[in-house]
Amino acid sequence: NAGVTQTPKFQVLKTGQSMTLQCAQDMNHNSMYWYRQDPGMGLRLIYYSASEGTTDKGEVPNGYNVSRLNKREFSLRLESAAPSQTSVYFCALAGIWNTGELFFGEGSRLTVL
Amino acid sequence: AQSVAQPEDQVKVAEGNPLTVKCTYSVSGNPYLFWYVQYPNRGLQFLLKYITGDNLVKGSYGFEAEFNKSQTSFHLKKPSALVSDSALYFCAVRPRMDSSYKLIFGSGTRLLVRP
Question: Edge-to-edge strand order for the sheet containing A4-7?
C-alpha cells in the first residue's frame, strides 16, 4: 500500500477527547476517502473529497469532520470521541482510471474508552 | 437502497480444492464490480474488477470472478486454494453513473484454507 500513509496507526482515547487522523498521499490522485471498518459491517464511507478544498458526506458522517487543505493530505477529526467510534479507519485514493478501484492505506486502529 | 450482500460470513475449504466466495448486489444500472482482499492488520488490496465484456474476469494470485447479470452476482473463484489465500474478502460495487468513485462494500467473507 505504498503511496498512502496514515498516522497514527494506533490510538486510545477517553470519551470526550478529540483527535485527528492524518492521511497523506504521494500518488497525485484527486479523490480521497475515509472509511471505517467494523466487524460484520464491511467498510462504510465517512467522508470523501473529490479535489483540494472540497469535501462531501458519506454514509456515516456524524461525529466526524474532515479537511482537505491541499492535494496530498486529507484529515479526519473526532471532536468529542465516543465509544461507538471505536473502529479501524482507512484512508483510500481513487486511481487515475475512470473505473475507479481504490488504493487503501494500512489503517488506523482507534479505541475509545 | 443500493447494497452488496456476501451471504457467507466464513468459507472453509481444503488446500488444493476449488473455492467460491459469493457476492450479490442490488444496484441500478450496470455497476462496476470489484473484489478486495485483506490480510490481518493490513489495508485492503485490489484483486480484480469487472467493467464490461467477458463475464469471467481474471485477477491477481490466480483468482477469477464470474459476473452474472441476470442473477446480479459476482462470485469470486479459484480453481485450487492455497493456505496463504486465508484472508478476509470484500466484494464492492460502484454505480456506473457515479463519478465520485465511491465504493459500496459487502460485509466481508472470511476464507479459511485448511492444509
Answer: A4-7, A19-25, A75-78, A65-67
Nearest CA among B89, B80, B65, B73 for reference residue B25: B73
CB nearest to B105's CB, from A43, A94, A106: A43
3-state secondary structure B51-67: CCCCCEEECHHHCEEEE
Flag if A33 and B49 touch (Cβ within 8 Å).
no
Do A104 and B90 make contact, defined as CB atoms within 8 angstroms?
A: no
Per-residue confidence in pLDDT tens, chain A, 113 aa: 458 999 999 999 999 999 999 999 998 888 999 999 998 888 999 999 998 999 999 999 999 999 998 999 999 999 999 999 999 999 999 866 656 688 899 999 999 99
C-alpha torsion angle, residues A40, B17, B35, B39 (rounded to 10):
60
Q: Which three cell numbers stand for residue B9?
A: 460470513
